[in-house]
Amino acid sequence: MASLTTNKYVNSWIDEMAAMTQPDKIVWIDGSDEQTEALRAEACSTGEIIKLNQEILPNCYLHRTAVNDVARVEGRTFICTPTKEEAGNINNWMDPNEMYAKLNALYTGSMKGRTMYVIPYSMGIVGSDFAKIGIELTDSIYVVLNMIIMTRVGKNVIDALGDSADFIKGLHAKADLDEENRYITHFPQDNTIMSVNSGYGGNVLLGKKCFALRIASYLGRKEGWMAEHMLILGLEYPNGEVKYITAAFPSACGKTNLAMLIPPEIYRNKGYKVWTVGDDIAWLRVNKEDGRVYAVNPENGFFGVAPGTNLKSNPNALYTTMRDTIFTNVVHNTENNTVWWEGLDNNPPTPGNAIDWKGNPWDCTKYDKKDKSTCGAHPNSRFTASAKNCPCLSSEFDNVKGVPVSAIIFGGRRAKTAPLVYESFNWQHGTFVGSIMASETTAAASGAVGVVRRDPMAMRPFVGYNMGDYFKHWLNMGKVIPNAPKIFHVNWFRTDAEGHFIWPGYGDNMRVLLWILARCAGEVDAVETAIGYVPKAEDINIEGLEDVTLDTIKELLTIDVESWKEDVANIKEFYAQVGDHVPAELYEELAALEARLG
Length: 598
Ligand code: GTP
Ligand code: SPV
Ligand code: MN
Description:
Layout: H1 8-21, E1 25-28, H2 33-46, E2 50-51, E3 61-63, E4 77-79, H3 84-87, E5 92-93, H4 96-107, E6 115-123, E7 132-138, H5 141-150, E8 152-153, H6 155-161, E9 168-173, E10 183-187, E11 192-196, H7 201-204, H8 207-223, E12 226-228, E13 231-236, E14 242-248, H9 255-259, H10 265-270, E15 273-278, E16 282-286, E17 293-296, E18 301-305, H11 315-320, E19 326-328, E20 331-333, E21 338-340, E22 354-355, E23 382-386, E24 403-411, E25 421-423, H12 427-435, E26 438-441, E27 451-454, H13 467-479, E28 486-490, H14 509-520, E29 527-528, E30 533-534, H15 550-557, H16 561-578, H17 584-597
Parallel strand pairs: 1-6, 3-19, 4-5, 4-10, 7-9, 9-11, 14-24, 24-28
Antiparallel strand pairs: 2-3, 6-7, 6-8, 10-11, 12-16, 13-14, 13-15, 16-17, 17-24, 18-23, 19-23, 20-21, 20-22, 25-28, 26-27, 29-30
Helix pairs in contact: 2-5, 12-13, 12-17, 16-17
């Protein structure tokens, strides 16, 4: 098939990649409905995807990945900068030449008998100041169909690129899906991403974590902006005013849920609303006119966690997935040709009518919450859904300027230590708060205490360069933002002695967002503590909450000095691991925290 462009950089790179991978043919993806429909039909004919009940789930499909290929592989993800120091200690590193040689052997002839699809895509609105262009070459129709939902794909992208060399090159080959030779690699200096031997989401939809976070974070540092693992939401007040918040939580810690929040009844009745701008990635820039930070969501869809999504927890997400969606690794209900996952409802498909995520008959009566192997849907099963189908999509989703950010929130899963919410003293302290973020692994089966893993800014797996330099970049950005957003930390996951979540979470998180925005507007006082400003308990509205009293809020806001001292020791170890690029300012903040704890 003829190239869609005369761009010599694009064409010579494709020629080079095709010479290596040796596909039978090359097909350009133009974004047209006819082509997309033909690809769906082809993937259905080979069993790569299954067409679901078109009356109940119009335009929806099911896909199952290989059993050994169900999540991102951090251990096999590499940042290949010329020196190890540039990648830092938190990333896996390999010398670029060594990695290229290794990959060359794996890619050579890998597309024989297959088609290479060329996907021109834009992260961000095509042609806008924020946007960046990528081209992904892949031998997977599943990847093509997902990219068409998750990014802006088509001929207009390649036209916008013109004859420029300013695009991110991405090569993906399924090869043999061999775990031992699976590599997700980034060459920031070459604007290049190479992924081989996987067919799973974050490893192969190269616009997402690989480009919009790892490569983009590297570019952002060079060009003076930020790429972050953040949701973006707009909170509308009864008078129609909308304020925007971004929030960074680690993977599967509640970004999609918060971004699509439905306010509690008492607020809904008054006219409060929440609008979704993004659920996973934010690109942030300083606006020269008003000196504020503006955020855009570079994606065009949601690659969301399916299990636990239901009409109560996240109705907006559920509605979004009712059309034009690709489900990956969920249960297939063969009785009515629909899908199911744990936590959708209490009516799993009955034995004889259910195929599990591995493609085997599934018996829901054998399901045991404590034994993951009895799940019908994989715990990391996902939906790929179009932003356009989200009932609460913000009217600013397509605003090329982005939305002005009033508050930045960090958060993780902490059974103890972190209070429900606290505010940093200033940008430098807020950067420190982000840098010490942590999330607990819940070892429920053995009853062991959760293991704290440091996940700075929820970016541990996604910073495309040295983590210490990333901290420095945060500090530097603070110096060039005249009207910086305030920085907060939240924790929805504090537990009682029996391990139950104390805070109801989900829609009720709105109550905390309102305190945060009141602080930004200077409308409410706070209590100064060793770790930052904490709300007065009575300033968190508990009207309409059943099991939450003023004492519950007090408990959620307590700061246990002993566990914070333990945390300080752990932070020191983590900073030492990040190494000598950790900025002196953060060590000063750490010392100051230690002193305040006494
Ligand atoms: P990625 O897409 O992996 O980056 O994740 P995410 O941050 O978007 O996570 P998501 O919103 O899908 O949340 C995943 C898990 O967190 C689910 O099991 C939810 O049920 C749970 N969760 C989300 N919000 C809350 C909350 O407020 N309280 C509690 N207790 N659990 C929550
Ligand atoms: C995450 O793991 O943070 C995700 C899913 O958002 S993936 O795209 O697979 O990285
Ligand atoms: Mn994510």
